[in-house]
């Protein structure tokens, strides 16, 4: 289980014990810290001593996730936000979807059994529009593109071709493609482009417990749309180069 963090100390005091209480027990918890200033690392180590705590190599949520993916030793990788919005008790459902044949278990707030205590009408409408674009571009049937609670088999990582965590931070301070909040959309696109088997898993999103969200409705929506277009171009270029005809 990969838990990216940046100033989530108060939330980790609740989230990490809840993860540890899940049965069947999770194989490992990897907390990836983004240079927090609120004692996140110390709280993680004190609250769950057996968790592995590492520091991301560059900046951005995508880089944090890639660092966690690389450090993982289990067969299954679960992406889990540290803000308390995700329910650890849903983890077995994600793993079960993989065991039953899925390559990628995609959490959804909008399929039957899912829900959200946090999403606004504006964000819900925006998500629906982005779903439509994604499904038309990639031939998917996603009901919830913009949700980060997902799981997949670890041996699929090479196919995802995420930025190497060992690569240096660009000198101009910019982020490599995939290092930012676009990571979840990038993953959804690349799983679809690779023709992997995707199963949606109903999930109920809860409100963030402490701290302020980093989501910016219009800016993030625009970034997701740009990501969809860029990943579609990437897919088409690769298919053309390989002689694949749709």
TrEMBL record:
Domain Glycosyltransferase 2-like residues, every copy: 2-152
Positions of transmembrane segments: none
Family annotation (InterPro entries): Glyco_trans_2-like, Glycosyltransferase_2, Nucleotide-diphossugar_trans
Annotated Pfam families: Glycos_transf_2
Protein family (similarity comment): Belongs to the glycosyltransferase 2 family.
PANTHER family the UniProt entry points to: RFBJ PROTEIN, UNDECAPRENYL-PHOSPHATE 4-DEOXY-4-FORMAMIDO-L-ARABINOSE TRANSFERASE-RELATED
Protein name: Glycosyltransferase family 2 protein
């Amino acid at each position: 289980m990969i838990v990216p963090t940046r100033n989530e100390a108060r939330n980790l005091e609740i989230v990490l014990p809840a993860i540890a209480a899940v049965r069947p027990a999770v194989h490992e918890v990897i907390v990836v810290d983004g240079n927090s200033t609120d004692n996140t690392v110390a709280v993680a180590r004190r609250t769950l001593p057996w968790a592995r705590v590492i520091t991301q190599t560059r900046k951005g949520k995508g880089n944090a996730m890639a660092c966690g993916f690389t450090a993982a030793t289990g067969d299954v990788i679960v992406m889990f936000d540290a803000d308390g919005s995700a329910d650890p008790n849903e983890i077995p459902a994600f793993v079960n979807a993989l065991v039953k044949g899925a390559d990628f278990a995609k959490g959804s707030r909008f399929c039957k059994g899912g829900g959200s205590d946090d999403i606004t009408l504006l964000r819900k409408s925006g998500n629906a529009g982005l779903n439509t674009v994604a499904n038309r571009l990639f031939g998917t049937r996603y009901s919830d593109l913009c949700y980060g609670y997902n799981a997949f088999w670890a041996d699929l990582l090479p196919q995802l071709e995420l930025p190497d965590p060992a690569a240096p931070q660009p000198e101009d301070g910019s982020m490599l493609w995939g290092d930012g909040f676009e990571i979840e959309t990038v993953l959804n696109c690349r799983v679809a482009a690779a023709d992997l088997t995707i199963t949606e898993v109903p999930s109920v999103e809860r409100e963030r417990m402490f701290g302020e969200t980093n989501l910016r409705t219009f800016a993030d929506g625009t970034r997701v749309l740009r990501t969809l277009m860029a990943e579609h171009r990437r897919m088409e270029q690769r298919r053309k180069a390989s002689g694949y005809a749709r």
